[in-house]
Amino acid sequence: MGLYRAFLRDIGRELSQWDAPVDLWIAWCGEVDQPGELSSYFPADARYLQQQGENLNERMDAVFVQLFELGYARVVMRNSDSPHLPHSFVEQAFAALTQQPGSVILGPDLDGGYYLVGLDRRADSLFPRVMSTGSVFSETVAAAAQQGREVVELPAFLDVDDGDDLCTFWLEFGGRADVRHWSTWQFIEQQGLMEQLVE
Question: Under CATH, which number does the domain 2-160 receive?
Answer without folding.
Answer: 3.90.550.10
